[in-house]
Amino acid sequence: MNATSRRDFLGLAQNAVAAAAMGAIAVHFVEGAEAMPVAPDPRNAGKRSDLVTEAQWGPGWGPPPRRRRRRWVCWWRRGRRVCGWRWV
């Protein structure tokens, strides 16, 4: 029987890490697939609209975007007063 070398062990370790990474990625795909809506019987669906859900879009709720402008202001930095243009 051949003695295993460091190179063989490193190759085995790299394959194990790659397999673990692929498994983690596959778990994310499975979770995403479970969240997708599926037609009750896709083989007998007559129209494409039976298989596809229409996207919902529109203006988002929340505060309106803040308009920023530059102002000349003064502030304290390291015990000294510094003045300059700042975005407010």
Automatic annotation (TrEMBL):
InterPro entries to which the protein is assigned, alphabetical: TAT_signal, TAT_signal_bac_arc
Region (Disordered): 39-66
UniProt-recorded name of the protein: Twin-arginine translocation signal domain-containing protein
Record organism: Bradyrhizobium betae
Lineage of origin: Bacteria, Pseudomonadati, Pseudomonadota, Alphaproteobacteria, Hyphomicrobiales
